[in-house]
Design a protein that fits this description.
The complex is a heterotrimer of chains A (about 260), B (about 375) and C (about 290).
Chain A (H helix, E strand, L loop, with lengths): L1 H27 L17 H8 L1 H34 L5 H13 L2 H15 L5 H26 L2 H9 L4 H30 L2 H6 L7 H8 L7 H31 L1
Chain B lengths: L1 H36 L8 H8 L4 E6 L2 H19 L2 E6 L3 H11 L7 E5 H10 L19 H10 L6 E14 L5 H7 L13 E4 L2 H11 L10 H12 L2 E5 L2 H9 L5 E5 H9 L4 E4 L5 E9 L5 H11 L2 H11 L14 H4 L14 E2 L2 H4 L3 H12 L3
Parallel strand pairs in B: 1-2, 1-3, 5-6, 9-10
Antiparallel strand pairs in B: 3-9, 4-7, 4-8, 4-9
Chain C lengths: L10 H27 L3 E4 L2 E3 L5 H8 L1 H34 L5 H9 L6 H12 L4 H9 L12 H25 L5 H7 L4 H30 L2 H6 L7 H11 L3 H35 L1
Antiparallel strand pairs in C: 1-2
Helix pairs in contact in C: 1-12, 3-7, 3-9, 7-9, 8-9, 9-12, 11-12
Classes of the chains: A mainly alpha (about 260), B alpha/beta (about 375), C mainly alpha (about 290).
């Protein structure tokens, strides 16, 4: 099975490519000097201490996570419904609808941001958290639609028809058959949406109410003076939290499960 | 036949659902864990809470974040809030164009009060656009400590009253790596060091249009505040472009390029070079003849609560605050060194003027530069991209 | 299915209502405002005159500056898309087919780079390819080179930066459609005498095309609309149409021209989506006949 080995090696190389910059960020979080390149001159935890003292970035982190989770919820819900319509039904104007749904990524964000602000002025509404949430959801929508659609196309209609012929209602069919099969795509979509929101900078700058900072806007502001390795430390903490906690939870769950038997 | 087929498929399906279930739980766990760890339940919608909390007036301050923000928060905003019961909402911006874009789109200045504004050019632009305010200087006693020389250009634009108080100043000179360029050579060449062909691929530059035009004027031997031959300016900019590795856009990029020796010479902001020198990098700084000096002000936008803003400005101009900010961002304070004792750190900053007269520094003349800005920005954007 | 009679089926429109309403309020209406701006006249920085005239559109048609940028953008988008497809398909296949039980971990690892801010991630290539970057450090340590190689700030670094940011979209999209394929199909083809390569080409590849197409579309469109990556990783000659838009809106404060340019980009990228939509439609048709 040498072809499989080749595929595996190739995959590993791609992962190495994906992780090289992350590895660098993680390593440099422990570098003692500010503009340290390689070789690393000294090991230090000072950037972690500075990070812990930095209230602003901790607050921004909380805002970003909240916003990201809510964005994931909103855009995944809207996106799954829309994808169902696109894949499961034939109707006129489908090309136009698809293009509309994907349009948020076609419009340069700077311009979309300004256009929406002009609209708000017309409505006499101030910038708010809700605007930011809706804006992020719409920016994330195309990603959700594309990934869910691609998966739905692969789920044969016959499965649903089988359920219907066994007496399930359309809603029951959706929850018992379609949704479970769709789950990987729904989570991929939600993950995309969270990520898009968490990482968005251009539109966020324009839409946020004064005084609200997300992690990217906070970092963007800090760039005028210099890049502090605190940001690397923040990256380290985020990765440890997002990977470490679930791993730990999974490990504990397995441990207790084993104890029971 | 058909029926049996479907039933079988349904069975297969149930099996797969089981598999899918595992994935789902794991993913839910992942998302949930991430959410809980971040303390969603605790700190929802920080910005909104901040706005709701304000019992007194709220002043929105927008600046560059980082050390400046920390120093202001500790030395000015917190004491001010304690003394008055008002709230200062402090946020970062990416520059004044961003704020102007927002204000223009919204049609009003709601949510914006005080900006850390760059240069006399921006002062003039805000005033021309009708967003200037009228400060009552009697409410800002600390303004008396500010150098007369640094206030003068602002008064020239608005003779009756100020819309801003000058806060700090610096220069955009030339930084070079002393391992590759000698001091003698640098001083002999001046602005033309940036055009030295032997350094091709090791030269940088600031992407800013006004700055490129200024240096193009220096390199074509013109008075930068009275440019006659713009073609010559862009010719020099093109010559420079062909030698440049990278035009930088932020202080972070500038410092990284110099610190990692990607480039040996570039224009540079004095404060950033001071920060590099402090960390022991072999970077020297010089202001060539007619090198560009600039100042920053705290601009109060029209529609702000004026008495509150004036009081806050007074806190910000307090010598202790001003000096702490200056040490943090490494740009000298606008306070007159003859009236306020400066620390040794500040005295050692590049661009620092001990006389308090700013005689040796050349500022951009907003009157000649602003009307041309549309034209030269457009011209530079094309030259930068190979035009 | 029942109800596929001649009467207009309202169900798809019900499902589409939330999405289309949001799109209308948050994209269509704001962009209509922007469209109006493209006929205004910019007098000075941030000062526009209300008018109905075509000077901005004329400038776009006449000025070679914009044409070069469009060409550069299309070229780079194609390069990045093709490379992303080549680099991304095989890992997606591996994740979908592996017997490794912690498959979710492989997927999570893909998303992981996104948790580190985009700006920092992009800047970190300087730590790898720069003069004092990891690669130069390694080469010097191995004695392969004496002086650091200059690798930064070129088109290559811009492409690397794009690939790094967009590859996960490609892989996840391909994976999702590969994962939806019946596991028994490829073995079935094998028992009918197909070689592994034939089985893949005849069965798996066609079935994964929707995902590949979605991935390609996303990467193409996202590259075409970017401006930050070339700004950070590129040299003076590396720019995209998005940079011109950003320059017009943010540095020149010329909304009318910015609006004109945005619409141009919107139309160009919109054409790509229409092509994609047609292709997906055909793909579904061919499935129905299988």
């Amino acid at each position: 099975m040498s072809a499989w080995k080749l595929i595996r090696t190739y995959t590993i190389l791609v992962y190495v490519f994906m992780f090289a910059p992350i590895a660098v960020v993680l390593l440099l979080a422990f570098n003692s000097s500010q503009f340290g390149g390689f070789p690393i001159e000294g090991f230090s935890l000072r950037w972690f201490y500075k990070l812990a003292e930095n209230d602003a970035i901790v607050r921004a982190f909380k805002t970003s996570v909240t916003l990201g989770l809510m964005t994931a919820l909103v855009s995944t819900t809207i996106g799954v419904l829309a994808s169902l319509a696109l894949v499961r039904y034939q109707f006129r104007g489908k090309d136009l609808v698809t293009t509309l749904l994907i349009s948020p990524v076609l419009v340069p964000e700077t311009v979309l941001a300004v256009g929406l602000l002009i609209f708000l002025r017309w409505l006499h509404m101030p910038r708010s958290f809700l605007l930011l949430l809706m804006g992020h959801s719409i920016v994330a929508l195309p990603f959700v639609v594309l990934v869910v659609q691609a998966r739905l196309v692969g789920i044969k209609k016959e499965y649903e028809e089988a359920a219907r012929s066994l007496g399930a209602s359309p809603v029951q069919t959706f929850f018992a058959v379609t949704l479970p099969l769709l789950m990987p795509a729904v989570f991929a979509g939600a993950l995309f949406a969270f990520t898009i929101s968490f990482d968005n900078i251009t539109a966020t700058i324009f839409w946020r109410p004064t005084g609200m900072e997300t992690v990217p806007t906070q970092i963007f502001g800090m760039l005028r003076n210099s890049i502090s390795p605190e940001i690397n430390a923040l990256g380290f903490v985020m990765i440890v939290v997002t990977v470490g906690v679930p791993l730990l939870a999974g490990g504990l769950a397995r441990y207790f499960a084993r104890k029971k038997t | 036949m058909k029926k049996m087929d479907s039933t079988k498929r349904y069975e297969i399906l149930r099996e797969r659902m089981g598999n899918g279930d595992v994935d789902r739980r794991t993913f839910v766990g992942l998302l949930g864990a991430a959410g809980i760890t971040a303390g969603v339940s605790g700190g929802v919608m920080v910005g909104m809470a901040q706005e709701a909390r304000a019992a007194g007036s709220t002043l929105n301050f927008e600046g560059w974040g980082g050390v400046v923000s920390e120093a202001l928060r500790k030395n000015a905003f917190d004491p001010y809030e304690a003394a008055t019961g008002n709230t200062v909402v402090d946020s970062t911006f990416g520059g004044e164009t961003e704020v102007l874009t927002k204000i223009k789109a919204a049609g009003n200045t709601d949510g914006h009060n005080i900006l850390h504004s760059s240069g006399v050019s921006w002062y003039q632009r805000w005033v021309d656009a009708g967003y200037g305010s009228e400060l009552n200087e009697a409410n800002i006693p600390n303004l008396a400590n500010v150098m007369d020389a640094i206030i003068k250009p602002f008064r020239a634009i608005t003779p009756n009253s100020l819309s801003a108080v000058p806060y700090d100043y610096g220069t955009t000179g030339i930084a070079y790596n002393t391992n590759y360029v000698s001091k003698e050579e640098a001083e002999a060449l001046g602005a033309n060091l940036l055009l030295k062909k032997e350094l091709k691929g090791k030269i940088g530059g600031w992407a800013d249009a006004a700055n490129r035009a200024w240096y193009g004027a220096l390199q074509s031997d013109q008075d930068p505040n009275n440019i006659q031959d713009w073609d010559a300016v862009w010719e020099k900019a093109r010559e420079h472009r062909d030698l440049v590795l990278k035009y930088w856009n932020s202080g972070a990029e500038l410092m990284d390029l110099l610190a990692k020796e990607e480039i040996y010479v570039t224009e540079a902001w004095s404060g950033r070079v001071a920060a590099l020198q402090e960390q022991g990098h072999p970077i020297a700084y010089m202001d060539p003849k007619n090198g560009l000096a600039w100042m920053e002000s705290m601009f109060v936008l029209k529609g702000s609560p004026m008495a509150e803003a004036e009081e806050l400005l007074n806190f910000m101009l307090d010598p202790a605050t001003s000096i702490a900010v200056a040490e943090g961002q490494k740009y000298p304070s606008s306070l007159d060194p003859n009236k306020v004792a400066m620390t040794d750190v500040i005295k050692a900053l590049p661009a620092y003027d001990p006389t308090g007269t700013l005689q040796g520094l050349v500022f951009r003349d907003a009157v000649t530069w602003n009307p041309l800005e549309k034209e030269y920005t457009k011209a530079w954007n094309r030259v930068a991209k190979g035009g | 299915m029942r109800g596929s009679g001649p009467a207009i089926d309202t169900r798809p429109w019900l499902l589409l209502t939330p999405a289309l309403l949001s799109i209308a309020a948050l994209v269509v209406v704001p962009m209509s405002f922007i469209l109006v701006y493209s006929f205004y006249e910019n007098i000075d920085l941030a000062v526009d005159r209300v008018a109905f005239q075509f000077s901005n559109w004329r400038e776009l048609l006449d000025d070679n500056y914009y044409h070069v940028a469009i060409w550069k953008t299309l070229r780079l988008s194609v390069i990045v898309t093709v490379l992303a497809a080549v680099l991304g398909y095989i890992p997606a296949y591996f994740i979908a087919m592996t017997k490794f039980r912690q498959r979710w971990l492989l997927l999570l690892l893909l998303i992981l780079p996104f948790w580190v801010s985009f700006i920092i991630r992009t800047l970190s290539w300087i730590h790898i390819l720069g003069n004092q970057g990891a690669l130069n450090g390694l080469f010097q340590w191995l004695g392969l080179i004496d002086a650091p190689l200059s690798m930064m700030y070129s088109e290559t670094t811009v492409i690397i930066g794009f690939l790094h940011v967009f590859l996960p979209y490609m892989i996840l999209n391909v994976y999702v459609s590969l994962d939806g394929i019946d596991d028994n199909l490829e073995p079935a083809a094998r028992t009918l005498g197909a070689t592994p390569w034939q089985a893949f080409r005849e069965v798996t590849l066609p079935l994964s095309l929707p995902g590949l197409a979605a991935g390609c579309l996303l990467v193409f469109v996202l590259t075409g609309g970017s401006y930050v990556t070339p700004l950070i990783l590129g040299g003076p000659n590396d720019y995209l149409f998005g940079n011109l838009i950003h320059d017009a809106v943010v540095s020149e404060l010329n909304w009318p021209m910015g609006a004109t340019l945005s619409f141009t980009l919107l139309v160009l990228l919109g054409l790509v989506v229409v092509i994609y939509s047609r292709f997906m439609g055909l793909n579904q048709l061919s499935k129905a006949f299988r």
